[in-house]
Amino acid sequence: MSHSTSRRGLLFGAAAVSTGALLAGCTSNETKDESPAADAGSAADDKPGKHVTIGFAGPQADHGWLNAINDNAKNRAKKYSDVTLEITEGSNDTAAQIGQIETLINKKVDVLVVLPADGKALTQVGLKAMRAGIPVVNLDRIFNSPQAYRCWIGGDNYGMGLNAGTYIGEKLKGKSNARVVELAGLDNLELTKQRTQGFDDALKNYPNIKKVARQAAEFTVESGQAKMAQLLQAQSRFDALWNHDDDQGVGALRAIDQAGRDDFLMVGGAGALSAFQAIKQDDGVLKATVLYPPTMAASAIDLARALGQGKGVTGMAEFEIPASITLYSAVVDKDNVDRYMPTGFR
């Protein structure tokens, strides 16, 4: 695999979205940062251009994935001598995050990158920025109105479930009366419902497989351990487990170890470094994880820079960047884990 191919693949978790594979104005120039996340991905236009001030506002980094979002944004911005990043402290309080974004609007930043704690609640401030002539890159959690952003980039929750279910289905397709269980995330989130729907739809293609139990956890180590213990106690036999989130998967693996169970395969979700390491070691139940790549924040900085410089996406005929980019939920197992290891988050 060539160096350039590996870097493009790392940018999006898989080289599956042709519109996002190469972003104009998105490579390193004079300023270098050596962190793997910052170096994950590249594009054709590496010449410094018009200076762009990018305002970045996200929720509080109270979860490994969200912390990785912030790190990816900061490290990506460091690569460019023509980018200044104004990053807010981050808050899960809607009013506080709106206030932070309004401050960035008042500072007259050139472009905004926003990962809203609540997309619906922050739609109005997205509209305010756009009306003020500040293009908004809406990251992951989507605003209610397409008028509130210029470009949306994010993960594919349905695709996570679909790819996890397909991977499990292929592993169990020769087994009669196969049984699977699901350890979901927060059930009040739409993304959790989408992940479950994708998983269920994939399993429809494997009539030999039945989902016999589902528990919802809370994306935390503690909840993962507690809910997995309940699943193990209730289900004396099953052949596969899909866990929606690698952070809560740390707790799930503890419960599995405590129960002395190794009679099934486990697939995780998101792409934590601990999951990659366990997959590579290959001495436990965790055999794969489906990506929800935090490198999307690095790509959002690329998109914001391109917007600020009036550029499009290299490799596409259009002068403008796309209105939306959905990243691919690649399956990472022992065969390809080395490729993705640099993108793993802690």
Automatic annotation (TrEMBL):
Protein localization: Cell envelope
Q: Output the superkingdom of the source species.
A: Bacteria
Q: Where is this region: Disordered?
A: 27-50
Q: Signal peptide position in this chain?
A: 1-24
**InterPro entries in the record:** Peripla_BP_I (IPR028082), SBP_2_dom (IPR025997), TAT_signal (IPR006311)
> What Pfam families does the record tag this protein with?
Peripla_BP_4
Outline the extent of the Periplasmic binding protein domain.
Answer: 54-311
Arranged from A to Z, the UniProt key words for this protein are: Signal
Q: Which family does it belong to?
A: Belongs to the bacterial solute-binding protein 2 family.
Q: What is this protein called?
A: Substrate-binding domain-containing protein
Q: Which organism is it from?
A: Streptomyces gilvifuscus
